[in-house]
Amino acid sequence: MPYEGEFAAYLPLQRIADSDQVKALLKRAKRALSESEGGKLPRPQVLPVADSPLPDLVLAIDGSNAEVNVANGYPGARVGYITVASVLLNLKLVDALDEYRPVDPVKFRTTEEAATRPAALPGSNVVTREHISARDSFRAELYDLIHNAVVDDDDHARLIETYEELLRYKPREKQQRCPYSYDGCEIRLSVPAGLTECPCSKRRAIFSTDALRIHEGFRDDSSNGQALGETMQVWEQLLLVHLLRCLEIRGMLEQAQKIAFFIDGPLAVFGHPAWLSAAISTELKRLNAEARKLTGRDLTIIGIEKSGTFVDHFSDIDIVHGRDEPLFEDRSFFMPNDDYIKQRIIYSASEKRYGADTYFGRKFFYKTKNGSRIVANIPFLDDEQDSLLSSELSLYPQIPVICGLLDKLVSSRFENAVTPIVSAHAHAAIPLHLGEKVLKQLAAALMKDGK
């Protein structure tokens, strides 16, 4: 293992890449066929212009996390810090300002409203209250974080209500280990809502958030970046569902057609809490069915991937050797199906569809009207959409609207990025406007627009 801050130089790394062992390994490895070898290239199609108007508001959600060393007398003591930011962008104001270029930066900032929520969680060697381990301290603080998070001051709807509604969808037949298995408890259980007790003789506390199983990856003696990352992604996805449910409770779900929800990253839940993905999908389908009854339109929800395998693949296939022009025209899109993903992007011979256990949506490639490449995700909003077998555009009527938004919002500052996500990330990285409440802003903007 290297010392802290010590990195290998270029030449030693190059020697490894050129070694006989690496070359022999690559000869045994599967290789994707090039076009000249019979490999298939996608056939992008130019999108029709959206029939429906673009949403008036964009709500973007993004999070960040970090771990810091703390001094409590124990070596290796750490605390995790998470922020999740939401930025509300008024596109009507943006359009109005666009008519008077160059836009005054001060006036442009009035088109955005931001809310940032910070949280601190125990890491290794940080034991709180009367708990007997850092792991139990983490579990208790995670429950408090979700339980005490109030998105709006007016109706006091707590994030825990949405989480425990999703918990109802978790399959009960597959029980999990007791959170105290590290201390010898052999009970297996289905974690219920609320604050309960382990049925063993010690009757120790069980939190509803234990069902997320994030604590199973907690490390008592080293970094807990994985646990923090899983907590952050759960918080981001819960916030999306929670805001939609709050609109429904307020009788404002009909107004959701005026909002586009942007999430940083794929529409998926990875790691220990992956079961939450199917629960979110079920709830989004229910909410979308209600929205369709009221408006005749699907909800507009988009995940944006800034990096990763799919982003790399899009770049690789667009610039094909031997071609004078890029493969993708401006305003063209391609939605990879399951076979394409397994043959060309992430090799797999499995009969289970790609992302079956983690994704509540699917990916598509879009080249905007200014030539930017975007890898976006759209959710499965009904059972017919919930498949990777077909790439038929008619199954996803919101795609032209989504791509119209991407044309409008693509960032000129960062590759593979859209402006609302850039803003949300800036607020997540630097805690600003700590007292503001996003749902209050959203409701006020919708009611103002309805006058």
From TrEMBL:
A Pfam match: NurA
NurA domain boundaries: 57-397
InterPro entries to which the protein is assigned, alphabetical: NurA_domain (IPR018977)
Domain of life according to the entry: Bacteria
Name this polypeptide is given: NurA domain-containing protein
UniProt source species: Micromonospora palomenae
